[in-house]
Protein backbone atom coordinates (compact mmCIF):
# COMPACT_ATOMS: atom_id res chain seq x y z
CA UNK A 1 0.00 0.00 0.00
CA UNK A 2 1.31 3.46 -0.91
CA UNK A 3 1.73 6.22 1.67
CA UNK A 4 -1.04 8.81 1.92
CA UNK A 5 -1.27 12.46 2.96
CA UNK A 6 -4.11 14.95 3.48
CA UNK A 7 -4.88 17.50 0.77
CA UNK A 8 -7.72 19.76 -0.39
CA UNK A 9 -8.74 18.38 -3.78
CA UNK A 10 -10.87 19.91 -6.55
CA UNK A 11 -12.83 16.93 -7.82
CA UNK A 12 -15.24 18.97 -9.93
CA UNK A 13 -15.56 22.64 -10.87
CA UNK A 14 -17.66 24.44 -8.31
CA UNK A 15 -17.57 26.14 -4.96
CA UNK A 16 -15.85 23.57 -2.75
CA UNK A 17 -12.71 21.50 -2.26
CA UNK A 18 -12.76 18.07 -0.67
CA UNK A 19 -10.25 17.57 2.16
CA UNK A 20 -9.20 13.95 1.79
CA UNK A 21 -6.23 11.55 1.75
CA UNK A 22 -4.31 11.06 -1.51
CA UNK A 23 -1.21 9.13 -2.59
CA UNK A 24 2.19 10.56 -1.73
CA UNK A 25 4.07 11.27 -4.99
CA UNK A 26 7.71 10.31 -5.56
CA UNK A 27 10.04 13.05 -6.84
CA UNK A 28 11.03 12.52 -10.49
CA UNK A 29 14.00 13.95 -12.36
CA UNK A 30 14.80 17.57 -11.29
CA UNK A 31 12.11 17.35 -8.63
CA UNK A 32 11.98 17.55 -4.85
CA UNK A 33 9.34 16.30 -2.44
CA UNK A 34 8.46 19.08 -0.01
CA UNK A 35 6.76 18.87 3.39
CA UNK A 36 4.69 22.01 3.69
CA UNK A 37 4.72 24.49 6.58
CA UNK A 38 2.45 27.20 5.11
CA UNK A 39 0.58 28.17 1.95
CA UNK A 40 -1.11 31.39 0.92
CA UNK A 41 -4.57 31.24 -0.67
CA UNK A 42 -4.64 33.31 -3.88
CA UNK A 43 -7.78 34.47 -5.69
CA UNK A 44 -6.40 32.50 -8.66
CA UNK A 45 -7.03 29.30 -6.67
CA UNK A 46 -10.68 30.30 -6.57
CA UNK A 47 -10.75 30.92 -10.34
CA UNK A 48 -9.10 27.50 -10.78
CA UNK A 49 -11.59 25.63 -8.62
CA UNK A 50 -14.58 27.38 -10.15
CA UNK A 51 -13.15 26.69 -13.62
CA UNK A 52 -14.01 30.23 -14.70
CA UNK A 53 -11.04 30.92 -17.01
CA UNK A 54 -11.03 29.94 -20.70
CA UNK A 55 -8.20 27.42 -20.11
CA UNK A 56 -9.24 25.05 -17.30
CA UNK A 57 -7.12 22.73 -15.17
CA UNK A 58 -7.57 18.97 -15.53
CA UNK A 59 -9.62 17.33 -12.74
CA UNK A 60 -8.92 16.24 -10.09
CA UNK A 61 -6.22 18.63 -8.89
CA UNK A 62 -4.78 20.16 -5.73
CA UNK A 63 -4.68 24.01 -5.92
CA UNK A 64 -2.16 26.30 -4.23
CA UNK A 65 0.91 28.13 -5.54
CA UNK A 66 2.20 30.05 -2.51
CA UNK A 67 3.46 27.02 -0.58
CA UNK A 68 6.50 27.10 1.71
CA UNK A 69 8.13 23.95 3.05
CA UNK A 70 11.15 21.80 3.62
CA UNK A 71 12.73 19.43 1.09
CA UNK A 72 12.42 15.85 2.40
CA UNK A 73 13.53 13.88 -0.70
CA UNK A 74 15.23 14.61 -4.02
CA UNK A 75 14.80 12.91 -7.36
CA UNK A 76 17.58 12.39 -9.90
CA UNK A 77 19.35 15.36 -11.42
CA UNK A 78 21.53 18.30 -10.44
CA UNK A 79 19.69 20.31 -7.78
CA UNK A 80 22.29 23.11 -7.54
CA UNK A 81 22.05 24.71 -4.07
CA UNK A 82 18.99 22.71 -2.96
CA UNK A 83 19.42 19.78 -0.59
CA UNK A 84 17.32 17.82 1.90
CA UNK A 85 16.32 20.33 4.58
CA UNK A 86 16.33 23.38 2.25
CA UNK A 87 13.35 25.71 2.63
CA UNK A 88 11.70 26.18 -0.76
CA UNK A 89 8.40 27.29 -2.26
CA UNK A 90 6.16 26.41 -5.18
CA UNK A 91 5.08 29.13 -7.57
CA UNK A 92 2.64 29.60 -10.46
CA UNK A 93 5.51 29.18 -12.97
CA UNK A 94 6.14 25.65 -11.72
CA UNK A 95 8.42 24.86 -14.67
CA UNK A 96 9.09 25.95 -18.25
CA UNK A 97 10.81 24.31 -21.22
CA UNK A 98 13.91 26.49 -21.17
CA UNK A 99 14.37 26.25 -24.94
CA UNK A 100 11.49 28.11 -26.66
CA UNK A 101 11.58 31.67 -27.97
CA UNK A 102 10.00 33.00 -24.73
CA UNK A 103 12.32 31.08 -22.43
CA UNK A 104 15.37 32.10 -24.45
CA UNK A 105 14.44 35.78 -24.33
CA UNK A 106 13.78 36.14 -20.60
CA UNK A 107 9.99 35.86 -20.91
CA UNK A 108 9.64 32.37 -19.49
CA UNK A 109 6.24 33.06 -17.93
CA UNK A 110 4.82 32.98 -21.48
CA UNK A 111 6.41 29.60 -22.31
CA UNK A 112 3.81 27.52 -24.18
CA UNK A 113 5.13 24.39 -22.45
CA UNK A 114 5.07 25.82 -18.92
CA UNK A 115 3.50 23.93 -16.05
CA UNK A 116 1.48 25.94 -13.52
CA UNK A 117 1.59 25.17 -9.78
CA UNK A 118 -1.80 24.21 -8.37
CA UNK A 119 -3.27 24.24 -11.89
CA UNK A 120 -1.56 21.83 -14.30
CA UNK A 121 0.54 20.28 -11.48
CA UNK A 122 -0.74 19.57 -7.96
CA UNK A 123 -0.04 22.46 -5.62
CA UNK A 124 0.38 23.44 -1.99
CA UNK A 125 -3.06 22.78 -0.45
CA UNK A 126 -1.80 19.59 1.17
CA UNK A 127 0.82 18.31 3.58
CA UNK A 128 3.23 17.49 0.72
CA UNK A 129 3.93 18.73 -2.80
CA UNK A 130 6.48 18.35 -5.57
CA UNK A 131 8.57 21.21 -6.92
CA UNK A 132 10.97 21.45 -9.86
CA UNK A 133 14.23 22.55 -8.27
CA UNK A 134 15.14 24.54 -11.41
CA UNK A 135 12.10 26.81 -10.92
CA UNK A 136 11.06 26.68 -7.25
CA UNK A 137 11.53 29.59 -4.85
CA UNK A 138 14.46 29.72 -2.42
CA UNK A 139 13.06 31.00 0.88
CA UNK A 140 15.45 33.50 2.50
CA UNK A 141 17.05 32.53 5.83
CA UNK A 142 15.15 33.90 8.81
CA UNK A 143 11.92 34.41 6.87
CA UNK A 144 8.65 34.24 8.80
CA UNK A 145 7.12 31.23 7.03
CA UNK A 146 3.57 32.58 7.19
CA UNK A 147 4.45 36.10 6.10
CA UNK A 148 6.73 35.09 3.24
CA UNK A 149 4.17 32.77 1.57
CA UNK A 150 2.23 35.51 -0.29
CA UNK A 151 5.47 36.82 -1.81
CA UNK A 152 5.58 33.65 -3.95
CA UNK A 153 2.62 34.73 -6.09
CA UNK A 154 1.10 38.03 -4.96
CA UNK A 155 4.51 39.57 -4.26
CA UNK A 156 6.35 38.58 -7.41
CA UNK A 157 3.30 39.38 -9.57
CA UNK A 158 2.91 42.94 -8.36
CA UNK A 159 6.67 43.56 -8.19
CA UNK A 160 6.94 42.60 -11.86
CA UNK A 161 3.71 44.45 -12.66
CA UNK A 162 5.03 47.65 -11.07
CA UNK A 163 8.25 47.40 -13.11
CA UNK A 164 6.10 46.98 -16.22
CA UNK A 165 4.28 50.29 -15.45
CA UNK A 166 7.67 52.00 -16.00
CA UNK A 167 6.83 54.40 -13.17
CA UNK A 168 9.94 56.20 -11.88
CA UNK A 169 10.74 57.16 -8.31
CA UNK A 170 8.78 60.29 -7.38
CA UNK A 171 6.02 59.62 -9.90
CA UNK A 172 2.46 58.57 -9.13
CA UNK A 173 1.22 55.00 -9.35
CA UNK A 174 -2.35 53.87 -8.75
CA UNK A 175 -2.91 50.48 -7.18
CA UNK A 176 -6.47 49.51 -8.10
CA UNK A 177 -7.71 46.69 -5.86
CA UNK A 178 -6.17 46.36 -2.39
CA UNK A 179 -6.61 42.64 -1.78
CA UNK A 180 -3.90 40.00 -1.49
CA UNK A 181 -1.98 41.39 -4.46
CA UNK A 182 -2.82 45.05 -4.00
CA UNK A 183 -1.82 45.49 -0.35
CA UNK A 184 1.61 44.05 -1.20
CA UNK A 185 1.79 46.21 -4.34
CA UNK A 186 1.40 49.30 -2.15
CA UNK A 187 4.46 48.18 -0.16
CA UNK A 188 6.66 47.42 -3.19
CA UNK A 189 5.67 50.73 -4.80
CA UNK A 190 6.61 52.64 -1.64
CA UNK A 191 9.92 50.75 -1.44
CA UNK A 192 10.56 51.61 -5.11
CA UNK A 193 10.09 55.32 -4.35
CA UNK A 194 6.73 55.78 -6.05
CA UNK A 195 3.89 57.98 -4.77
CA UNK A 196 1.04 55.57 -4.13
CA UNK A 197 -2.68 56.12 -4.66
CA UNK A 198 -4.90 53.19 -3.71
CA UNK A 199 -8.37 52.52 -5.15
CA UNK A 200 -10.85 49.95 -3.87
CA UNK A 201 -14.57 49.68 -3.16
CA UNK A 202 -14.27 48.93 0.57
CA UNK A 203 -13.16 51.32 3.34
CA UNK A 204 -11.25 48.65 5.30
CA UNK A 205 -9.13 47.90 2.19
CA UNK A 206 -8.33 51.60 1.85
CA UNK A 207 -7.36 51.76 5.54
CA UNK A 208 -5.00 48.80 4.95
CA UNK A 209 -3.46 50.66 1.98
CA UNK A 210 -2.88 53.75 4.16
CA UNK A 211 -1.28 51.59 6.84
CA UNK A 212 1.14 50.21 4.24
CA UNK A 213 2.08 53.65 2.94
CA UNK A 214 -0.47 54.89 0.37
CA UNK A 215 -0.59 58.71 0.47
CA UNK A 216 -4.09 59.03 -1.01
CA UNK A 217 -7.03 56.63 -1.28
CA UNK A 218 -10.19 56.60 -3.38
CA UNK A 219 -13.39 54.65 -2.74
CA UNK A 220 -14.59 53.85 -6.27
CA UNK A 221 -18.04 53.05 -4.93
CA UNK A 222 -18.48 56.59 -3.63
CA UNK A 223 -16.69 58.87 -6.07
CA UNK A 224 -15.62 58.77 -9.74
CA UNK A 225 -12.10 57.33 -9.34
CA UNK A 226 -10.86 58.79 -12.65
CA UNK A 227 -11.82 62.32 -11.64
CA UNK A 228 -10.45 61.91 -8.10
CA UNK A 229 -7.06 60.67 -9.37
CA UNK A 230 -6.78 63.33 -12.08
CA UNK A 231 -7.51 66.07 -9.53
CA UNK A 232 -5.10 64.77 -6.90
CA UNK A 233 -2.22 64.20 -9.33
CA UNK A 234 -2.78 67.26 -11.52
CA UNK A 235 -3.51 65.38 -14.74
CA UNK A 236 -3.49 61.67 -13.98
CA UNK A 237 -1.20 58.96 -12.68
CA UNK A 238 2.01 57.97 -14.50
CA UNK A 239 1.41 54.30 -13.79
CA UNK A 240 -1.71 52.28 -13.00
CA UNK A 241 -1.58 48.70 -11.73
CA UNK A 242 -4.93 46.90 -11.76
CA UNK A 243 -5.17 43.96 -9.36
CA UNK A 244 -8.96 44.15 -8.87
CA UNK A 245 -11.27 41.21 -9.42
CA UNK A 246 -14.02 43.22 -11.11
CA UNK A 247 -14.07 44.28 -14.79
CA UNK A 248 -15.18 47.83 -13.88
CA UNK A 249 -11.72 48.64 -12.52
CA UNK A 250 -10.09 47.94 -15.90
CA UNK A 251 -12.02 50.62 -17.79
CA UNK A 252 -11.56 53.07 -14.92
CA UNK A 253 -7.78 52.69 -15.21
CA UNK A 254 -7.88 54.47 -18.57
CA UNK A 255 -9.47 57.53 -16.95
CA UNK A 256 -6.94 57.55 -14.10
CA UNK A 257 -3.85 57.48 -16.33
CA UNK A 258 -1.81 60.53 -17.24
CA UNK A 259 -0.95 61.30 -20.89
CA UNK A 260 1.83 58.92 -21.94
CA UNK A 261 1.07 56.73 -18.94
CA UNK A 262 1.27 52.95 -18.70
CA UNK A 263 -1.48 50.70 -17.38
CA UNK A 264 -0.64 47.15 -16.33
CA UNK A 265 -3.28 44.49 -15.77
CA UNK A 266 -2.59 41.83 -13.13
CA UNK A 267 -6.19 41.05 -12.14
CA UNK A 268 -7.90 38.25 -14.03
CA UNK A 269 -11.68 38.43 -13.72
CA UNK A 270 -13.17 36.41 -16.56
CA UNK A 271 -14.79 38.81 -19.01
CA UNK A 272 -14.35 42.02 -20.99
CA UNK A 273 -14.50 45.76 -20.42
CA UNK A 274 -15.29 48.67 -22.76
CA UNK A 275 -12.12 50.54 -23.79
CA UNK A 276 -12.57 54.13 -25.10
CA UNK A 277 -10.39 54.28 -28.23
CA UNK A 278 -10.39 58.10 -28.34
CA UNK A 279 -8.94 58.41 -24.82
CA UNK A 280 -6.29 55.76 -25.43
CA UNK A 281 -5.11 57.46 -28.64
CA UNK A 282 -5.29 61.08 -27.47
CA UNK A 283 -3.54 60.28 -24.19
CA UNK A 284 -0.95 58.03 -25.89
CA UNK A 285 -1.53 55.27 -23.35
CA UNK A 286 0.20 51.92 -23.12
CA UNK A 287 -1.90 49.05 -21.79
CA UNK A 288 -0.22 45.72 -21.08
CA UNK A 289 -0.88 42.50 -19.28
CA UNK A 290 1.65 40.95 -16.90
CA UNK A 291 1.74 37.33 -15.74
CA UNK A 292 3.48 36.51 -12.43
CA UNK A 293 7.28 36.91 -12.85
CA UNK A 294 10.40 35.11 -14.00
CA UNK A 295 12.80 33.34 -11.67
CA UNK A 296 14.87 36.52 -11.58
CA UNK A 297 11.81 38.64 -10.67
CA UNK A 298 11.06 36.12 -7.92
CA UNK A 299 14.60 36.34 -6.52
CA UNK A 300 14.38 40.15 -6.54
CA UNK A 301 10.91 40.16 -4.94
CA UNK A 302 12.15 37.83 -2.19
CA UNK A 303 15.23 40.02 -1.71
CA UNK A 304 13.00 43.07 -1.04
CA UNK A 305 11.25 40.90 1.57
CA UNK A 306 14.51 39.66 3.10
CA UNK A 307 15.75 43.25 3.46
CA UNK A 308 12.66 44.09 5.54
CA UNK A 309 10.76 46.31 3.09
CA UNK A 310 7.68 44.10 2.69
CA UNK A 311 5.40 42.79 5.44
CA UNK A 312 2.27 41.14 4.04
CA UNK A 313 -0.78 41.29 6.30
CA UNK A 314 -1.48 37.57 6.78
CA UNK A 315 -4.17 35.76 8.77
CA UNK A 316 -3.49 32.13 9.66
CA UNK A 317 -5.99 29.35 8.95
CA UNK A 318 -6.05 25.55 8.75
CA UNK A 319 -6.30 23.37 5.64
CA UNK A 320 -9.81 22.36 6.74
CA UNK A 321 -10.86 26.06 6.59
CA UNK A 322 -10.09 26.40 2.87
CA UNK A 323 -13.73 26.49 1.71
CA UNK A 324 -14.50 29.26 4.22
CA UNK A 325 -11.50 31.21 2.92
CA UNK A 326 -12.86 30.85 -0.63
CA UNK A 327 -16.19 32.24 0.55
CA UNK A 328 -14.42 35.25 2.09
CA UNK A 329 -12.52 35.86 -1.16
CA UNK A 330 -15.82 35.78 -3.05
CA UNK A 331 -17.30 38.30 -0.62
CA UNK A 332 -14.15 40.47 -0.71
CA UNK A 333 -13.76 40.29 3.08
CA UNK A 334 -10.19 38.94 3.39
CA UNK A 335 -7.86 41.47 5.03
CA UNK A 336 -4.62 41.15 3.01
CA UNK A 337 -3.96 37.43 2.59
CA UNK A 338 -5.07 34.24 4.34
CA UNK A 339 -2.48 31.49 4.65
CA UNK A 340 -2.76 27.88 5.76
CA UNK A 341 -0.39 26.64 8.47
CA UNK A 342 0.23 22.88 8.44
P1 LIG B 1 -8.35 39.39 -3.61
O1 LIG B 1 -9.70 38.81 -3.62
O2 LIG B 1 -7.50 39.22 -2.41
O3 LIG B 1 -8.43 40.98 -3.89
C1 LIG B 1 -9.25 41.56 -4.87
C2 LIG B 1 -9.50 43.02 -4.49
O4 LIG B 1 -10.21 43.66 -5.57
C3 LIG B 1 -10.34 43.20 -3.22
O5 LIG B 1 -9.69 44.08 -2.32
C4 LIG B 1 -11.63 43.83 -3.74
O6 LIG B 1 -12.26 44.69 -2.80
C5 LIG B 1 -11.10 44.59 -4.96
N1 LIG B 1 -12.12 45.01 -5.90
C6 LIG B 1 -13.23 44.36 -6.31
N2 LIG B 1 -13.92 45.12 -7.20
C7 LIG B 1 -13.22 46.27 -7.36
C8 LIG B 1 -13.41 47.45 -8.13
N3 LIG B 1 -14.48 47.59 -8.93
N4 LIG B 1 -12.48 48.43 -8.05
C9 LIG B 1 -11.42 48.31 -7.24
N5 LIG B 1 -11.18 47.21 -6.48
C10 LIG B 1 -12.08 46.22 -6.54
O7 LIG B 1 -7.61 38.80 -4.89
P2 LIG B 1 -6.02 38.64 -5.19
O8 LIG B 1 -5.55 37.35 -4.64
O9 LIG B 1 -5.36 39.91 -4.85
O10 LIG B 1 -6.07 38.44 -6.80
C11 LIG B 1 -6.54 39.50 -7.60
C12 LIG B 1 -6.66 39.07 -9.05
O11 LIG B 1 -5.35 38.91 -9.60
C13 LIG B 1 -7.36 37.73 -9.28
O12 LIG B 1 -8.18 37.82 -10.44
C14 LIG B 1 -6.22 36.77 -9.51
O13 LIG B 1 -6.55 35.63 -10.29
C15 LIG B 1 -5.26 37.66 -10.25
N6 LIG B 1 -3.86 37.24 -10.24
C16 LIG B 1 -3.14 37.45 -11.36
C17 LIG B 1 -1.81 37.13 -11.39
C18 LIG B 1 -1.00 37.42 -12.61
O14 LIG B 1 0.05 36.84 -12.77
N7 LIG B 1 -1.42 38.31 -13.47
C19 LIG B 1 -1.20 36.55 -10.27
C20 LIG B 1 -1.97 36.36 -9.13
C21 LIG B 1 -3.30 36.71 -9.11
ZN1 LIG C 1 -1.65 33.50 -7.31
ZN1 LIG D 1 9.71 27.65 -23.01
List descriptors.
binds zinc ion; 17 strands; alcohol dehydrogenase (NAD+) activity; 26% helix; ADH-like_N; NAD; Rossmann fold; alpha/beta; 6-stranded parallel sheet; 10 helices; metal-binding; Quinone Oxidoreductase, Chain A, domain 1; binds nicotinamide-adenine-dinucleotide; 2 domains; 342 residues
Describe the model.
Its cofactor is Zn(2+). Keywords: Metal-binding, NAD, Oxidoreductase, Zinc. This is Alcohol dehydrogenase. The protein is α/β, with parallel strands linked by helices and 342 residues long. The protein has 2 domains: 4-153 and 293-341, Quinone Oxidoreductase, Chain A, domain 1, CATH 3.90.180.10; 155-289, NAD(P)-binding Rossmann-like Domain (Rossmann fold). Helices cover 26% and strands 26% of the residues. It contains 10 helices and 17 strands. The strands form 4 sheets. Strands 3, 4, 5, 8, 9, 16 and 17 form a 7-stranded mixed beta sheet that branches. A 6-stranded parallel beta sheet has the order 12-11-10-13-14-15, sandwiched between helices. It starts with a strand and ends with a strand. Nicotinamide-adenine-dinucleotide binds at residues 42-44, 47, 153, 157, 176-182, 199-202, 205, 220, 243-246, 248-249, 266-269, 290-292, 329, 332, 334. One zinc ion is lined by residues 42, 44, 65, 92, 153.
Amino acid sequence: MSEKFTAAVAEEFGPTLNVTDIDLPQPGRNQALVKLHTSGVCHTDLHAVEGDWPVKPGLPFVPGHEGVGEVVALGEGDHADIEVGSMVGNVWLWSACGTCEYCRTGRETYCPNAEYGGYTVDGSFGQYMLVDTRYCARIPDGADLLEVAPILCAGVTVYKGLKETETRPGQFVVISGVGGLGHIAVQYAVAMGMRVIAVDIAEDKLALAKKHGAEYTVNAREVDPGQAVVEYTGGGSHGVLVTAVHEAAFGQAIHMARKGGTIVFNGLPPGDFPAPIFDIVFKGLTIRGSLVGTRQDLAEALDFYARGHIHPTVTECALEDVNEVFEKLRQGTVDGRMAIRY
